[in-house]
Design a protein that fits this description.
- It contains 4 helices and 13 strands.
- The radius of gyration is 17 Å and the shape is globular.
- The chain has about 250 residues and is α+β, with helices and mostly antiparallel strands.
- The chain has one domain: Endonuclease/exonuclease/phosphatase (Deoxyribonuclease I, Chain A, 4-Layer Sandwich).
- The strands form 2 sheets. It has a 7-stranded mixed β-sheet with strand order 5-6-7-8-13-9-12, with helices on one face.
- The two termini are about 15 Å apart.
- The longest helix is centred in the N-terminal third of the chain and has 12 residues.
- This is Exonuclease III.
């Protein structure tokens, strides 16, 4: 069985919100991560259409003018939480479904994103999250060149994440155990990234213990024997899939 995943930066929707929602639904994905989502009237219409189409949705509480992350899943969401107590939830938001922890990512610009990268790298290294999906506002200065000569702050961060067990040639990363059957088939279309990958297996009951909305999701058992693949992406928008299955 495969899990089809899509992520799209909607730039808060605006007048294009209805068309963007139609586009999201057109991916027929099992899991959607929408970045630069805003919890305002436009965002509420998007949520309503997704839920009418059979998705469960979750996003952090945020100011209506603040960009954040929306996660929509066809599998019922068991719980949701901030990624860490130490950082605001509107940049990193976690949900768990069927024993799988997903982190929706919308990192801030410039130096402000560096503490978020440290948190992502730390938890990925300790196998405390399965999927990291969204907009990392980071790139490779050799691959993602701005015609005006602007350069990324923190370009070494993807490399540090790669050093925890992933490999790269662009911006979409899939890391899973060697025992996983099948392969992922990522596709990049416009500013959206989609992929199909083996559906993660359920975790032990102890790993799925209940948690309140405002507490960190628990540490995960460390998995071993990781294999990797990576495909290219476009500037600014990226999707990382970490530990898709055991």
């Amino acid at each position: 069985m495969t899990l089809r995943i899509a992520t799209l930066n909607i730039r808060h929707g605006g007048k294009n919100a209805d068309a963007l929602t139609t586009r999201l639904l057109g991916y027929d994905a099992d899991l959607l991560v929408v970045t630069e989502f805003r919890a305002n009237d436009t965002g509420a219409r998007l949520v309503t259409r997704l839920e009418r189409a059979g998705y469960e949705t979750s996003h952090p509480l945020a100011d209506p003018k603040q960009n954040t992350v929306l996660i929509a899943s066809r599998t019922p969401i068991d719980r949701a939480s901030r990624f860490t107590r130490d950082l605001p939830g509107h940049h990193l938001w976690c949900v768990e479904f069927d024993g799988t922890i997903v982190a929706g990512v919308y990192l801030p610009q410039a130096h402000a994103k560096l503490p978020y990268w440290e948190a992502l790298i730390d938890r990925a290294r300790r196998s405390e999250v399965d999927l990291l999906i969204g907009d990392f506002n980071t790139g490779n200065n050799d691959l993602d060149k701005d015609p005006k000569g602007a350069r990324f702050i923190g370009p070494e961060m993807p490399g540090r994440l790669i050093a925890s067990g992933t490999s790269t040639c662009g911006g979409l990363c899939i890391r899973r155990s060697v025992s996983t059957r099948g392969s992922a088939a990522p596709v990049t279309t416009g500013s959206a990234s989609t992929t199909s990958s083996p559906r993660p297996s359920s975790r032990d009951a102890s790993a799925a213990a209940s948690s309140t909305m405002r507490r960190d999701l628990p540490a995960r058992p460390t998995t071993q024997g990781w294999s990797c693949c990576w495909t290219s992406t476009r500037l600014w928008t990226a999707m990382w899939l970490i530990g898709c299955a055991r």
